[in-house]
Amino acid sequence: MNLLEKLTKKWENSSDPFLIHPSGQLSFAEISAQDPVDLSAIKTGDVVALVGDFNPPSILTLLRLIDLGVIIVPLTVETAEDHEYFFESAQVDVVIKDSLINRRETGQAHPMIEDLRKRGNAGLVLFSTGTTGRPKAILHDFSYFLKRFETPRPTLRTINFLLFDHIGGMNTLLHTLFNRGVVVAPEDRSVEGILASCKEHGVEVLPTTPTFLRMMLMSGLIPGKVPESLRIITYGTERMDQPTLDQLCTLLPEVDFRQTFGMSELGIVRVKSEDRQSLFMKVGGEGVETQTVDGVLHIRSANRMLGYLNAPSPFDKDGWYDTKDVVEERNEFYKVVGRTSEVINVGGLKFMASEVERVALLHEYVSLVKVYAKDNPITGQHAEIIVEPAGTDRFDKFAFKKHLTKHLQSHMIPRKIIVEKVEVGHRHKRS
Q: What does the pLDDT read at residue 176?
């Protein structure tokens, strides 16, 4: 039985909505009954870029492509300027966009793609965020990726805030499909738009990012615009800061805040927060092992990627992956305090950029910040900070500098304070 047949059987005799979309509410049967895109020209083993979103045609096409045994590269229009790079990196044979199919000429296929073709298995290619260089093409065996959804789990009404090309977005879609849940696909991903969709459709779960949650605080729309239906907010993809979490927990006492952790390279990793107001989490579950090496978290996962298509393998000979996350440990729980790339070395004195950001966010007229290292001819490096004020008329750079001086050691105080908007990408993470 193929995937589409399996899901059709699972949803048999159900007229409940599966997808709430700007086009309306649709059951799974209504989605699968649509006029499908003509895929007759696509062959098993083709690498197919599917440019779409969580809309009915894209969902149906995705499921049919899995059953055809192709290697799928899900993309969104938000990354259009990078698509040509993605096509080349993933060795894309076919592009599907707006129901149109275009075949491309490609050279010799990567050995991992050839191996998937020989085994007749579908594949999934996701791209890293590319914060340290060009995005890496991450290849998964889709048959292994799907196995984790076969265990029944409870499903709540979830807004799919994370996008079509994100492992978290794909996880929400498939989890909801396998467990007969409801997924809400918002048209407007602004704070106001997301909260309005949550209220209109009785959303129970909001998966999001720390940056977006900080923007929620800045908006002044919470707690007043947060619907009573919202039970759980999950956050991940970047490090959360304690001041933001504390404020959220105070303003939304009935909401359970849960940290998520994972990387596209490792598949979905189960996480349990110590409690709603703690940044400590237990990482693991079946098929996942953890260890720390010099304070950095390493993970070995049975659901890991096959490898990169455009970069060397990041796994050591024993299969361990260096997450680059610097952590504190407490009773088998981990707290991410920063990235190895965020260590700033001032004359031999090392500290995390995240510690400076934490102190900066304690200032009442600061909304978003970003701290980074700059080369220094005397000390090797020094810190600089970009500050986005919460109300520019009240922010005073001199008072802010006094605030930093009061709470930080002298070598940690940024040499330069830049007052401007902190850039946030389409995934609602700081650029």
A: 92
DSSP string, 309-342: SSS---B-TT--EEEEEEEEEETTEEEEEEEGGG
| 101-116: average pLDDT | 92
Quick one: the chain helix, strand, coil %, rounded to 5?
30, 30, 40
Domains of the chain: 34-146 (3.40.50.980), 347-419 (3.30.300.30)
**240-279 pLDDT tens trace:** 999 899 999 999 999 999 999 878 999 878 899 999 999 9
Q: In whole angstroms, how far apart are CA 340 and each of 106, 280, 322, 350, 372?
A: 37, 18, 10, 11, 12
Structure tokens given for 235: 């956050």
In terms of pTM, does the model score above 0.85?
yes
- Burial class, 302, CB count within 10 angstroms (exposed 0-12 / middle 13-18 / buried 19+): middle
Q: Alpha helices of 201-347 — where are they, by DSSP H?
A: 210-219, 242-251
CA dist 83 and 77 (Å) reads 9
CA distance 147 to 174: 11
Q: Taking the CA atoms of the chain, what radius of gyration do you get in angstroms?
A: 23
